[in-house]
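Budget justification note: compute hours in this period were largely spent on complex prediction jobs such as the one shown. Inputs:
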Amino acid sequence: DAKTTQPPSMDCAEGRAANLPCNHSTISGNEYVYWYRQIHSQGPQYIIHGLKNNETNEMASLIITEDRKSSTLILPHATLRDTAVYYCIVRVAGANNLFFGTGTRLTVIP
Amino acid sequence: DAGVTQSPTHLIKTRGQQVTLRCSPKSGHDTVSWYQQALGQGPQFIFQYYEEEERQRGNFPDRFSGHQFPNYSSELNVNALLLGDSALYLCASSSLAGGLYTGELFFGEGSRLTVL
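Corresponding output:
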C-alpha cells in the first residue's frame, strides 16, 4: 500500500472549515483514499473515501487532485466534537486491512 | 443494531502471563480483523479472520494467535506477555461480498491491556 504523509497537528476555530491535507504521491491506479478519525479513547470511525472524483457525505467532503497524488478532507463547519486524530489511508480496492500512519491531530478551538 | 463489541474494556496482566480478548462483529458482518495501537501511534494490523480461518497476518510474532467462531465472533490470544504488549487492542468487522470487501471497517472501542 502507498504511504501517506500528513501534518502532525492542526488547529481550527469552531464554526470554520477544517481542511486536512494528505500526500500520497506513490498511489496506484487501483488504490482508494480513505479517511478515518479517532476521538480520544474510542475506536477509529470511517469518514469518507474516494478513487479520483470528489466525494461528499453528511460528515465531510473529500477533494482529490487530478494527478491523485494528494487529497484534502474538508469538515465544513468544525465543532468541538470534531477534535480527533484524522488518518488518511490508501487502500487497494477490495483489501480489508488498513495501514494507519500517525495521522493529524485536529484541535477545534472555541 | 449493536455495533462491534469488545471485552474486557480494561485489564492488567503481568509479564509472562497469557490474555484472551473477545470481539463480536457488527450484525451482518462475517470478517473480523484485529489491530494493536500503542500509545501515540496509529493502529497496526495484527491479523484477519474469515470463515474461521486466519486469512491475512501483519508483522506480529506467533505469540499472537486468534480464533473465529461459527457465529463470526473472534478471540485474540497473546501468550508470554511482554511489557511492550501494553496497548489498545481494536477489533474491526466488515463484510465480504463477491470476494471483495465492501464498505468501511467498523471498529469497536477496544480493550486496553496493561502489562506490568
